[in-house]
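Thread: quick sanity check before group meeting

JM: Hey all, I'm pulling together slides for Thursday and realized we never actually wrote out the predicted structure for the chain we discussed last week. Dropping the sequence here so it's in one place. If anyone has concerns about the input, flag it before I start.
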Amino acid sequence: MNSSEIRSTFLKYFESKGHKAVPSSPLIPWNDPTLLFVNAGMVQFKKIFLVEEKSPFDRAVSCQKCMRAGGKHSDLENVGHTARHHTFFEMLGNFSFGDYFKKEAILFSWELFIDFFKLPDEKIYVSVYEEDDETAKLWSELAGLPDKKIVRLGAKDNFWQMGDTGPCGPCSEIIIDQGRHIGCKRPGCFVGCECDRFLELWNLVFMQFNKDESGTLTPLPKPSIDTGMGLERISAVLQGKTSNYDSDLFEPIIQDISSLSGIVYGSSKDADVSIRVIADHIRASVFILSEGLVPSNEGRGYVLRRIIRRASRHARLLNINEPCLYKLTDSVINIMGDIYPELKKERERTQKLLRIEEESFTRTIESGLNILDDIISRVKKVGIRVIPGEEIFKLYDTYGFPLDFARDIAMDSGLSIDEEAFQKEMELQRQRSKGEEAEVKAWADIKLPMFEIEAEGYSVKTEFLGYDFLETNAVIEVVLEKGRLVDELKEGEEGELILNKTPFYGEAGGQIGDTGTINSENLSVSVIDTKRVNHNFIVHHVKVMKGIVTKGAEVTCSVDTQRRKATMKNHTSTHLLHKALRITLGEHVKQSGSVVSPDKLRFDFTHFDAMTDGEIKKTEDIINEKILENLPVKTEIMNIDEAIKTGATALFDEKYGEDVRVVTVGDFSKELCGGTHCKSTGEIGLFVVLSEGSVASGIRRIEAITAKTAFDYLRQKQAELDGIKSLLKTENPLDRIEKLINEIKFLEKESQKLKTGTSKDMIADALKNAYEIDGVKIVKMRQDGLDHNELRLLADNIRDRLKSGIIVVTSVNNSQGAIVCMVTKDLKDKYNAGEIVKNISKIAGGRGGGKPEMAQGGTKDIEKFNIVFESLFDIVKKTVTS
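JM (edit): ok, ran it. Output follows.
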């Protein structure tokens, strides 16, 4: 069976058993900040298993895209060195949410394996948790497995738990014996051995307990089933292969890598490792890029960057020294594109980003790689296995060479790095840094006292009323000064306040925080900034202008209305801009950051090239058309899954709750957003792009202004244009400026001709006054005001007319004396321009030298320079005759 048939057979089998076929969720989890990437089939059902969400079905089956690279479940370092480790893989799984349990799960798995996949039952073993007599008995009764094929293992191998607390239970793995010729080949090799002979194929997890903080296990009222089987592994087994990389999921990719490198897979152990790394990593890269992620230096983007660069390095080990990964994207898409259509849709963007990242990597890391290779050679030569951390730190400090990247390369060479020494060097560098001396503001560390607040037992939750009101009454719940809980703030002091409710928007989602006032009868407080620290707290950074702030005080909160409304206009404009860019540039455009303030907006987005003037104009036109249409801006609270299904755009790096706020602009734009917005687009008034530029590989940035700020900007530009018209005395300044530029260029050329003697016969006078030594003509000439280039050009012109001889030209320019000497080719073996200039410069109190045909020198001593020029022939004569 090929992999497509295996995937289809699995899904159809469980559909026939009453399971709902659920599509794979994205690799990037929508609403789980605990994960970098989805790493198991159960992740999209996590809330159902935790009873936080009710499922519309009791049984489900899926083929889930998974990634294990970065975080505690990372297989990155093992990829390429084994037959079965991958970063990206597909997990086949069936799930029961309080419906069937152990008996049915075992029956389903056995029937699928024996009757549909036709696996030989004599090669099948199972492992069970050592205390799980029930599961052992079921395997014996339902599958007829003898006791010797039912292996009991400890909690490390056969007891699963979601976290330190919560749902957990025993698990049972179905294992195939691949034969004595596979693995360690030890006589005692059996289930539990780390080699590949007894290969785990399918893990059945029986969620039947809830574990509390004390470790006590309580039976769940409705036990559940979570199973997982890697498609790559079962495909290899069913296709008679002992390595996943020999299956049809990898074979075409490996063939293309071999074609690019000219190295046949299987011909070299080291080359095989590199080929497997590239094959695995190009699959991972194509899938992650298809979901809109871009390489970066943090979080998921950094994992992606590390995967791409690791593959690129292994390509270099195969002597592929130019970008090549983008050439392999079609290999992946041809295999997987029909199952995952987003791969085809994002093909062009994926190829461009891969090429950009590889080119960037080559430029920044090439020198570092050569140095690291040299370090590894030296370490091996002296017979040690640990690379000094100080050496790796130098690489990091000089070339930005990442530690984890160096670690990968060291491991490939059988070495490790002294990371303790590396970290010591890092700490010394931090201490040397000036930034280490800077005072850390309590406001910047406002997250720290939140733990103290919670630990003190405060049941504080700020209710945000700012969507509907710009002024509200409130009670001060918490008072902080420099990050410490205090009883009061006095006049002139700064601190932080947490209220029971507030109209002030706390900085989040790119929108900056509100400012304004908090007052009462004897109190006046200026709100300098506002931040949303977590889901519960909105913190107001304040300065007391009059009175004393105390906990429990009743106050009136007033937002700076003009500032807030300007911010709202800019925030709604970012939504219009996002959609307009997708229309102008293509659907590959995705938001990758923004800053919304009252003065302007900044919007970062994925795109590869600088926008043309025409593209910027088209984008502006689209937005201003929507402003003129005065489209209604509506907000509603929806379930996140429902919102996504209705077409709302979500940002991968944002953390969303179960219920989200959806902002809809007419029929033009729909996004998940917690920010504040206009009631209609007409309130924006006007939209103007100030600039467009690059901020990183594949990331562009637009800065823009709106409303009165945009109007004032255009009025200023009009005033500047009117001034130019008045100065040039014309209504067509562009034509007049173009004409002036051409005139300036002409005059500059004429000036250069005058200086270098090509427009009048100054050279003829110099040739006429030439001095002869032994039949060799020596021409001298002084033309002040020339720079070095112009002086060389003058010497060239004299040489062209002299045909044979020695030329010495001088010039005084900006209080510097310059000398150029040339010797025609026919005389260079007899006379040396470098020696002539060296002697002249030395006498003039300067320095000089050069080649036999041409040399130059100079001096700051103009008085000596003038004397030297008068006796130049004598100096040259002494030099050439000595």
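AS: nice. Confidence is low (pLDDT under 50) at residues 433-457. The longest helix spans residues 347-381.
JM: adding both to the slides.
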